[in-house]
Amino acid sequence: MAAALILFGFLFALPLYRRNLMTLGDFYRSRFGRTVEVTTSIVITISYLGWVAAQITALGLVFHVLSQGGIPQSIGMIIGTAVVLIYTLYGGMWSVALTDFFQMVIIVVGLIFIAWSAGEMAGGVDTVVTHMDFAGKLDLFPKGGALEWVAFFAAFCTMALGFIPQQDVFQRVNSASTEFGAKWGTIVGGGAYLLFAFVPLFIAYSAVLIAPELMVHLEDGGDSQMILPQLVLMHMPMFAQVLFFGALLSAIMSTASGTLLAPSVTFSENVLRDYFPGMRDKKFLVMTRIVVVCFTALVLLFALNSEATIYEMVEQAYSVTLAMAFTPLALGLFWKRATNQGAIFSIFAGGFVWMSLLLPMIGWLPAPEAWIELANQVPPQFFGLLASLLGMVVGSLLPQWIRHDPQGHLQHA
User: Fold this and answer.
1) Domain extents for the chain?
2) Residue 407 pLDDT > 70, yes or no?
3) Would you give the DSSP letter of residue 69?
4) Is the distance from CB of 77 to CB of 57 less than 8 angstroms?
5) Which residue of 7, 64, 129, 324 lies most exposed, with the fewest beta carbons within 10 A?
6) Does domain 2-412 have CATH number 1.20.1730.10?
7) Average pLDDT for residues 234-252, to the nearest whole number?
8) Do 252 and 62 meet the contact criterion of CB atoms below 8 Å apart?
């Protein structure tokens, strides 16, 4: 995801910023037409189900842990959702910017202090890093043949490329007051993201040395998501606990607020607005707020009924956009021969191949054993990406049966 921000800053930020657009859907419409606009906007909106559900699940987990089991995780999810919804609904992008700024200060201060405390308890930073290295936890690249490398690259693409066609990234870039801020704010943010992501990883691995009983619990089938909060609760002083859970809640809420607003704006602007011609800004704001509430309810329902882990929810979110939305955005910006027909071929080819592998893998469709084994080894969305690239090239180079005029209306040749 750090790579996604850096790539977005270097390659996508300025071309999109200079177009003076409100949403990514506006780009798809101006470049490819109304059909592509609606389809990609729906795809982007759906992708946020998993992403926001991951934040809601994490909120429920925090409330459950802090209450020592007194608050069920489901009730914690409802409480957290209500809090985020209220300030997102009434404050919009400005509330997201303000709360994110203050929450990020809490995150940085809180986690650095916890990392320092955990390192001291584990015998020093050198001790923890040496132990990580000896256990092979610092090995970035896969050990194996071509298939392992393909799987590694596919997993990288899921986050690094699937994160790019997301409205929350676009709206943060587009909210910058200058081109310099739009580009370099994103790049610096990506670099800081990469560096700071190692802090919670360091804290969590310290548990191996500080509290080996937690690792034994994990080996016995415990929930790995509980290691870090249990380490803090069981082995840290009260001040450190307050800092940690304050930072954790800040991280979750800062993400959830922006990611509630982004898909709601996309759906309102690029799917619904055309059905209400002549709508004034005040009525559009009301409609967007209604969409925010409806989307929040849908996310909460999804989170309450999902059995996926937080990480799996995030991976699912970016699988959708990688297979169906990345290629029309990237080639639409950087390949002059990309056409409306190519974009349509790309979206449906990517979606079809991705779903053809995904559904048998999760047991929703029958398929040959070799087919399922391949999907388990290499993420299905990677094949979806390849199919979408092929669809764009073939659809753009073939005779054009589907065209659109400069206003974005479809025309059949």
Assistant:
1) 2-412
2) no
3) T
4) yes
5) 129
6) yes
7) 84
8) yes
